[in-house]
Amino acid sequence: MSFLTILLLYYFESCIIASMEKAVWDVKSQFETYKGEAVFDAMVAEFLLSDGRFSPQMESTLAQYGVTTLPELVEKQKERLAGLPKLQSLFNEIEMPLIEVLWSMEKTGILLDTDRLKKTGEEIERAIVAAEEEIKKEVGFEINLNSSIQVGNFLAEKAGVPLAKTKTGRYATNENEIFQHAEQFPIIKKLLAYRMLSKLRSTYVESLISKVDEKGRVHTTYNQVAVSTGRLSSANPNLQNIPVTSEFGQKIKACFTASADHVFVSFDYSQQELRILAHLTGEDKLIDAFKNNRDVHKTTAMLLFNVEYDKVTKEQRMIAKTINFGIIYGMSSFGMSQTLHIPTDEAQKFIDTFYKTYPKIQIYYEGYIKQGKIDGFVETLLGRRRYVYEDPKRKFVDNNMRRVLINYPIQGSAADLMRKAMIRIYAEVVKNNSSVKLLLQIHDDLVFEVKNEKKTIDGLIEKVRDIMCHIHPLAVPIEVDVKRGKTWGEMEKI
DNA sequence: TCGCCTTTT
DNA sequence: GAGGGAAAAGGCGAA
Predict the structure, then answer these.
(1) Are residues A257 and A210 in contact, defined by beta-carbon separation less than 8 angstroms?
(2) Minimum CA–C1' distance nucleotide for A229
(3) A163/B1 CA-to-C1' distance in Å
(4) What was the pLDDT predicted at A111?
(5) Is residue A283 part of a domain?
(6) Which of A86, A107, A128 is the last residue in one of the domains?
(7) What would the pLDDT profile of A289-346 be if each residue is shown by its tens digit?
(8) Residues A143 and A201 placed together within one structural domain of the fold
(9) Is A465 left (phi over 0), alpha (psi -120 to 50) or beta?
(10) Looking at A7-11, A32-36, A196-200, A431-435, which range is the least confident one?
(11) B3 nearest neighbour residue (CA to C1')
């Protein structure tokens, strides 16, 4: 057989394979129908190919490509992907295989102890009634505490609290705005307590109970194409924003329970975004800190305030932590001044000192933004793209775009690595193993339900940790914190 | 449907 | 001189 013949055969074979794939919009929502079949998800493809401003919609995508049916659309998407090798591999090796993983997680669901949640709900209810009574006594007339307009009017005009206005001219009553007057006006603390409880009741007690199936489990829906950085989102119910901070929040989380003879085991990437920052920028001081397993916020504080590592105070560490995360998000001096409650010029000084401390971070970002403007896009470690566009409706395009771009390679690469790890974990640990179920992903955290046997748990920990830590080697070691517990609210580090 | 507020990572 | 942390979901009031 000549070389040409082989090439031709290869060409025809790939055409046949390509033409056998079924063109589908949103495979996951109809997974039972297409299970085991070769499919091409046009929605998922369009998520990679589009400019990232909106989630892809079928009607408008068809119109945009000037076609009327899915096979015509897919043909054109394939042509585009063929010219973009990195995106093509991302599509074939990450995005398409992820569909089954998410489908499986959704279908499995998580057991909710509704009796316990109802009791917690009653406790919250009592606290709400008490708070409401106290507040209403002080207000002196009928008021709906859930109405920010009524509350704003009362605080500003009756109680005399000096409140700022929102952009639409109402009084701003958000926590950040009113908390600064809490000492002078004690009603504010009661109001904030009421708000927290009321939020817990409506969003996390009543709504969760209504979503339990006949087996006592709740099933979220993961959206693979909602977030341009490549993070997942979770809805109906959203299990990615279950409370963690307050005491009642913990109690709600403790109502998510492992089934009989099972436990939860969770794996949490530790400081993953800052490790990726160290990797992308090659900043030696940050790399050293991670290599030597030092506290990264403390390290920044040490360099920023020019003190010994062991002499860093709590407050210095807190400031350093704010700056570390602020840099990741492209925070402005104003944003930082709000968070730290300091003047903007002081915040600006911290930022300048940060960049002087870590010069390679500044050099990296200058080159990265410049290249992004030249190419018209920026990309993550695995080649996910964010196109640089200008929104004519917004005034300060450059600043906003800049913030988006600065955050993108960090959050996006972290999301890439998590997606890749989930696929390997599913294939190697979950799919053909009835003792292990993958239930949840909360951005840098995976939660499994595992048969409560030492051998199974130990095996899972070894395997999952190995996959997560070595999924894409960086210039710094990757670390994963492992926890276990009978409920999601009572996980203990192991 | 929009605006405000709150929750998470 | 404005307007300023990244990205989501969702409840509720007001219109």
Answers:
(1) no
(2) C7
(3) 27
(4) 96
(5) yes
(6) A107
(7) 999 999 999 999 999 999 999 999 988 898 888 888 887 777 777 777 777 878 888 8
(8) yes
(9) alpha
(10) A7-11
(11) A168
pTM (predicted TM-score)? 0.92
Q: Going by DSSP bridges, is the β-strand pair A480-485/A492-493 parallel, antiparallel, or unpaired?
A: antiparallel
Read off the CATH number of the domain in which A157 is found. Answer: 1.20.1060.10
Q: Which nucleotide is nearest to A396 (CA to C1')?
A: C3
Tell me which DSSP letter residue A428 carries.
I
Q: Which residues touch strand B (CB under 7 A)?
A: A 148, 152, 166-168, 170-177, 192, 195-196, 199, 240-246, 249, 442-445
User: Which of A211, A234, A262 delimits the end of a domain?
Assistant: A211
What six digits make up the tokens of A345? 């010029």
pLDDT reading at A458 higher than 70:
yes
- Using left for φ > 0, alpha for ψ between -120 and 50, and beta otherwise, residue A230 falls in left
Other CB atoms within 10 Å distance of the CB of residue A33: 11
- A449 part of a folded domain: no
> What are the pLDDT digits (tens) for A398-432?
677 888 888 899 999 999 999 999 999 999 999 99
Q: Measured in angstroms, what separates residue A397's CA from nucleotide B5's C1'?
A: 26
At A480 the three-state DSSP class reads strand
Structurally, chain A folds into a number of domains equal to: 3
Residues A44-62: pLDDT tens digits? 999 999 987 788 999 999 9
Is the pLDDT at A118 greater than 60? The verdict is yes
Query: What are the backbone dihedrals phi and psi of residue A229, each rounded to the nearest 5 degrees, phi first?
Result: -75, -10
**What is the CA A157 to C1' C4 distance in angstroms?**
29
Range of the domain at A129: 113-211
The protein residue nearest nucleotide C6, judged by CA to C1', is: A329
Q: Is the CB of A336 under 7 A from strand C?
A: yes
Largest pairwise CA distance in chain A:
94
List the CATH number of the domain containing A46: 3.30.420.10
The C1' atom of C6 and the CA atom of A12 lie apart, in whole Å, by 46
Residue A224 binned pLDDT confidence (cut-offs 50, 70, 90) = very high
User: Taking the C1' atom of B9, which residue's CA lies nearest?
Assistant: A443
A348 touches strand C (CB under 7 A): no
Tens of pLDDT, residues A147-169? 998 999 999 999 999 988 888 88
Mode of pairing for the β-strands spanning A22-24 and A39-41: parallel
Shared domain check, A80 and A122: no
A151 CA to C15 C1' in angstroms comes to: 18
What phi, psi does A184 have (nearest 5°)? -75, -30
Does at least one atom of strand C sit less than 7 Å from the CB of A241?
yes
Whether residue A130 sits in one domain with residue A54: no
B strand bases under 7 Å from protein CB: 3-9
A246 CB and strand C closer than 7 A: no
Based on the fold, state whether residues A73 and A130 are members of the same structural domain: no
